[in-house]
Design goal:
The chain has 346 residues and is an alpha+beta fold. It is built from 9 helices and 16 strands. It has a 5-stranded mixed sheet with strand order 2-1-5-3-4, with helices on both faces. Strands 10-11-12 form a 3-stranded antiparallel sheet. The protein has a two-stranded antiparallel ribbon with strand order 6-9.
């Protein structure tokens, strides 16, 4: 294990691991440096230029890409840095639909956070020529909406798709003021290779990517995803008596903070009025509710009339290895068939 590196940020002596960036070292020690494009799950790129700092003996650098060094003296607050950050922030806000009150990301937006810290010169900002923001929404995906007028081109979604999901379905397109995040051929997202995992949606710092029917939960509960047998950790948001959101447990050993489309967007069945709560049995051509005892007894009686290839078993990934072993022994030894399959094969 390597020794910790000692450095000073704004007169405060801190320690950090070798290879840690100045920005992460500061944030881990309670020292705020404004940033927008940096995310702890992704490789730093230094796009937004809001995290500029001064290092003794050097010109201003981006702290998200600068590794810590022994004895380094960092300054995050100075007149020059404030001017640099304010200009960069003005350019971001100028090209942003800042109608915050109607945005569901309101109060959770990273752009709001850095704006509160850096501040805007209202006179300078009012004198600037603002572009017309009228890009159409991409609402082709059934689970989330893309709002290009809210996008700040931080590239977090692009890097998430490449580094975490490995899909690479989106990237920067066009040039200059026309730059945007696009799929191949600038088509709707539904016509791309997007697998709707929602990883980009969960990491978007602004309101450019938002889930449909985004409802704020009253409380959250950590649990396990009910779908496949991977056992992904999820945090379920509840409002009233309904599940309204789902996100990954950051440090879960099963999924390491990632989810698939089912775990993130597929829990709506829990609230469905058509969900079965009791077993059904067919009587006189109609399915009627019954007890588990009667249902299991009926199944056992009907099994007597089936043998060999007339019978098939579908095992479950939610069962233990021992349960699935017993299931295949029952299918082969009792029902005399090899017709057994498993949902994890799909």
């Amino acid at each position: 294990m390597s020794e910790l590196i000692t450095l000073t940020i704004d007169g405060v002596t801190i320690k950090a691991n070798h290879g840690t960036t100045v920005l992460r070292a500061a944030l881990d020690n309670g020292i705020y440096i404004p940033h927008l494009c940096d995310h702890p799950d992704l490789n730093p790129v230094g796009i937004c230029r809001l995290c500029m700092v001064e290092i003794e003996g050097q010109k201003p650098v981006v702290s998200c890409k600068t590794p810590v060094e022994e004895g380094m003296k960092v300054t995050s607050v100075s007149a020059e840095l404030e001017q640099i950050r304010q200009v960069n922030l003005e350019l971001l806000v100028l090209n942003h639909d800042y109608n915050c009150q109607s945005c569901t990301k309101n109060s959770k937006c990273k752009l709001q956070e850095v704006t509160r810290y850096i501040g805007l010169d209202e006179k300078r900002f009012a004198a600037m020529r603002k572009p017309q923001l009228d890009s159409p929404l991409d609402d082709s995906n059934p689970y989330y909406i893309r709002n290009f007028d809210k996008c700040v081109l931080c590239g977090i979604c692009v890097r998430t798709c490449e580094e975490i999901q490995g899909d690479c379905c989106i990237d920067f397109a066009y040039r200059g003021i026309n730059t945007k995040i696009s799929v191949l051929g600038d088509k709707p997202i539904i016509d791309s290779t997007c697998v709707t995992c929602g990883e980009c949606v969960s990491r978007c710092p602004v309101g450019a990517l938002l889930p449909r029917n985004d409802i704020e939960p009253t409380h959250e509960t950590e649990t396990v995803c009910p779908f496949c047998g991977c056992g992904c950790g999820i945090v379920v948001g509840v409002r009233g008596n309904e599940i309204v959101s789902s996100r990954a447990v950051p440090n879960s050993p099963a999924n390491s903070g990632s989810l698939c489309v089912k775990g993130r967007f597929g829990l709506g069945f829990v609230n469905s009025p058509e969900r079965l709560t009791k077993p059904l049995i067919r009587k006189e051509g109609k399915l009627v509710e019954t007890s588990w005892e009667e249902a299991l007894s009926t199944i056992a009686q009907k099994f007597e009339h089936y043998r060999g290839d007339q019978f098939a078993t579908i095992a479950s990934a939610k069962c233990t290895v021992e349960d699935n072993y017993v299931m295949q022994k029952f299918t082969r030894a009792v029902m005399k068939t090899n017709n057994i399959d498993h949902c994890a094969r799909l």
